[in-house]
Amino acid sequence: MTTPRTEHLVLTGVLTAGEAAATVAGILAVQRKDGAIPWFRGHHLDPWDHVEAAMALDSAGEHQAAERAYLWLARHQLADGSWYAAYADGDPLDVTDRGRETNFVAYIAVGVWHHYLSTGDDTFLDRMWPVVYAAVEFVLRLQQAGGQIGWRRDDDGTPTEDALLTGSSSVHHALRCALAIAEQREEPQPDWELAVGALRHAIRQHPERFLDKDRYSMDWYYPVLGGALTDAEAKGRIEEGWDRFVVPGLGVRCVVPNPWVTGGESAELALALWAMGESDRALEVLQSIRHLRDPETGLYWTGYVFDDDAVWPRELTSWTAGSLLLAVAALGGHEATCAVFGGEHLPRGWTRTAALESRVRVVRGCSRPRGGATYRHSPAPLEVGPPDRRERARGTARPAPDYPQPPTPGRPVSMAAQPAGHGVADEQIDDRGEPVAGDHPRPRLVEGEQVTRPACQPVGHVVDELHQVVGPVGVQQIHQNPQSENDGHDVRDHRDDRPRGVGMRAISRGHAFRLAPELRFKPRTSGTGTEVQRRVNSSRHASGPRSR
To answer: Compositional bias of type Polar residues: which residue ranges (predicted)?
Structure first.
């Protein structure tokens, strides 16, 4: 064990340097030799709280211990990219909940990006990229037509379509971190960006798409902590629920009207307040839960029932200590923690038009924007061989899956337009999700125009050619040809048949496409790698962070 770096973890009325070191040591004492961090020894491990504790270790300079935690996840990731919801004492062979919860699975992206920003370790990022990639793909297979994320897949493969606001807000944060990782590696994932935009729009504008868990404080503050609500929206939401959930001098209720405050919810609210720029209130909240600290272990009791003056449950959990350390680290200016939870420099994803739901009907091979134009792909699908980056990302040499063969040099790929109207939408959503009036002209594409992709040309050039040839017309997936399961793509996956916006990754898989108005891809090089400029005006998709 190294000596923790705790100077930025000293906070008046919350932690002294000695207390911060004791809290870090308390988490390390819970961690198993194989890297697993259960709630406490003898209790279960869940992937979300495991990552939260690992981030706390990174915030204190315990990078080797944090890396062991992430490598535990890498070693025990399931074939579909997920993890089970609970492992007894962190034992990978003793599974106590065989469900797979989407926010649990997605959260590794937050932890991996936090560790990379804490250490600058490119080798670690290369090692974890295929793990993050597979996890995100698992999560997006449960994204619903309205953008929200189904919260769980059962062990028999049955997906749960119901969505939780807290869980989806956490996934929103995780997807933005996953996009940051992709950009750092120069592996753009435009379809992930579309997924983030759809999810954020659902969180901001469509509360009816989520199960009603309004009694839980996490549903109150998590849209802010997850970065979906910012500025005036964030402030309005926090003010609206403040008197309902905050008990002055004691902390934050977990559930109303129960007289029970909890350390984890209190620390996370403080982190959300810090992200809003309200550091003074964040400090007050953290100071209010000092009564939950156990001086012997440096850890924190899960909660306190104030009507009975009783600690309950009598559990000193690693994730409660972890959430407090992360909030203190943000207030203390720890760069990685500030970058991950401040969110200013995380990719925001694309947004989409309100006409997305009301005016576009998608069938195999054809899209019919009502009152707009019909675009039909030519009979032959766009055939593109798997790019080298897929094997490089996985870091292993695999037998080539049964992809369609690349076209011969100069072989054309045709896309034809059938004009059928003037405009395609009378409403847009800007980059903050606000409606903007407007009408979009018919795409400048005439029948017979072609996009030619020479064999073995990098995928990014295909996207650039599409941009140059069809102007404001972009590419959208309507059907995926079944892929080999060796490629990590389950041919039984219903997501294959759900129309979603796609970009370079989907083009690389040999999918069939249709044209969709106003989806632009134009790669350009920036200081941090390849960044995709984007604008989306028309496209179409089809519990909380911890279980207590």
So the answer is: 525-541
Indicate the pLDDT class of residue 6, thresholds 50, 70 and 90: confident
CA dist 511 and 495 (Å) reads 13
pLDDT tens digits along 476-495 = 332 233 333 333 333 233 33
Q: What share of the chain is helix, strand, coil (3-state, %, to 5)?
A: 40, 20, 40
Angle between helices 231-245 and 217-225 (to 10 degrees): 160
For residue 366, pLDDT beyond 50 = no
Q: Is the pLDDT of residue 221 over 70?
A: yes
Q: Helical H runs in 353-402?
A: 355-358, 388-394
What are the start-end ranges of the E strands in 86-175?
86-88, 95-97, 100-101, 150-153, 159-163
What are the residues facing 501 on neighbouring strands? 476
Question: CA-to-CA distance for 174 and 189, rounded, in angstroms?
Answer: 14
Based on DSSP, count helices (H) and strands (E) in the chain, helices before strands. Answer: 18, 22
Q: How far is CA 454 from CA 406, 410, 462, in A?
A: 9, 5, 9
Give Cβ neighbours of residue 84 (< 8 Å, ≥ 6 apart).
78, 95, 97, 98, 99, 100
* Selection from 22, 59, 51 nearest residue 330 by Cα: 59
Three-state SS at 33: coil
Cite the DSSP H helix spans in 259-373. 263-276, 279-288, 318-331, 335-342, 355-358
Q: How far apart are CA 462 and CA 467, in angstroms?
A: 9
* 35 close to 27: Cβ distance less than 8 angstroms: no
The single residue listed with the structure tokens 């006409």 is 355
Cβ–Cβ < 8 Å for 548, 204: no
Whether the CB-CB separation of 141 and 100 falls below 8 Å is answered with no
Written as six digits, the tokens of 94 are 């003793």
Of the given ranges (116-125, 165-174, 397-406), which has the lowest mean pLDDT?
A: 397-406
Q: How far, in Å, CA of 169 to CA of 102, rounded?
A: 11
420 neighbors 372 (Cβ within 8 angstroms)? yes
What whole-number distance in Å separates Cα of residue 396 and Cα of residue 486?
A: 12
Question: Which pLDDT band, with edges at 50, 70 and 90, does 352 fall under?
Answer: low
Is the pLDDT confidence value at 169 over 50? yes
Start-to-end CA distance of the chain, whole Å, equals: 30
Residue 351 confidence (pLDDT): 62
Q: Which residues contact 61 (CB under 8 A, 6 or more apart)?
A: 2, 3, 4, 5
